Amino acid sequence: MSTKYDVIVIGAGPAGYVAAIRAAQLGLKTACIDKMVDADGKQTLGGTCLNVGCIPSKALLDSSWKYHEAKDALDVHGISTSDVKIDVEAMIGRKRQIVKNLTGGVAALFKANGVDALAGKGKLLANKQVEFTANDGAVETYDAANVIISTGSVPINIPVAPVDNDVIVDSTGALEFTEVPKRLGVIGAGVIGLELGSVWARLGADVVCLEAQEDFLFMMDKQIAKEAKKTFTQQGLDIRLGARVTGSKVNGSEVEVTYQNAKGEEEKVTFDKLIVCVGRRPFTEGLLAADSGVELDERGFIFVDEQCATAVPGVYACGDVVRGPMLAHKGSEEGVMVAERIAGQKAQVNYDIIPNVIYTHPEIASVGLTEEQVKANGIDYNIGLFPFAASGRAMAANEAKGTVKMIADAKTDRIVGFHIIGPSAADLVQQIAIAMEFGATAEDIGMIVFSHPTLSETVKESALAVNGHAIHVANRKKRK
Question: Which residues are tagged catalytic?
């Protein structure tokens, strides 16, 4: 005899656990299946993001930055330090405790909202039945009025550098180093590669990033990307563009990597550790029965419409396993949308206004269109730039590097893109994401009173600069 649920969610990452909580809040009998376990073999909720992704990487990024400041950057404040040391195991222990606190928090939220947490694997069968294989091997079948698939993504492995979880690791393994590698290689200079490379570079590793693309951060605004590369190079990251890895050979405790450089010449470099982070792919192994009715697209993503509905009525998919940017916040919003649509509401996600952040130091953040995309779309536009070097608050904090860039439609003055490299970029960009959601113009932002002295003033000044009205920087001549 099968158990009946209004909603069964497969996957408890940012998309899945949020969908499950929201569905339960709306009065739907909900279960959430997830196979991830902790070091003690107990179920741990939150998916990649909370366990081995967004949260633990930020913990290490913050710890490593504080070490760097204490060792090399406090003298400007008149603070003298000597013999500063880093206890890597203690740093990793702090990271683990943060993960434990947050994953335990999700479990508590499930309990508070009446969500049944099922530890194991879920497989979608025909007629919206879900086969549940518990982590102890027991198999059960559940009936569901609605199913939400949110199984997330996993790192892409490449044959030329197979992960052995010792010398060659993926992004998960890079969060567990117990000592600082002297020579660290990173295949991929994207978001994950830059963040992980930054952590270990600050702690003393010589870091080389091998990036196959010839354009640095090709998905970002080129002006911001150019400034970012210059900044990271000054910080000690050796970023080699147009570097296509062709092979690797592990020799005891080191690995020799062979790659073709931008000129087509073969080069070799030896590392003590090698991190492979060339992207992520949707995780669908063992997820769908042949007669489930759910289809995958040519890239392996579950095919869904704008509201995350699959071709099977009552079956939805959201998060990294579907189209769009692989971002935790995008997945969470899709989870809320799906739960509310199941409950009869008309929720939507505005995919045009999803902020994107790289948590290096300085942070890089963007929302909306890049200048290159605006040009490609044939939009006549104006740009407002403001440097953090002209911000009193940034100077006081010794964080005066970076730029704020606002792009507005020349005819309507509506903001179409916003990009920052600088202190607190992730939080500052959210101000304009909110403004864009309400159709704000650059003039609207320029008319708002911003408190002084704050980093936020750079946002206002960039808005004023769009129309040549900036006060605290010389205004550029308008483009012809």
Answer: 452
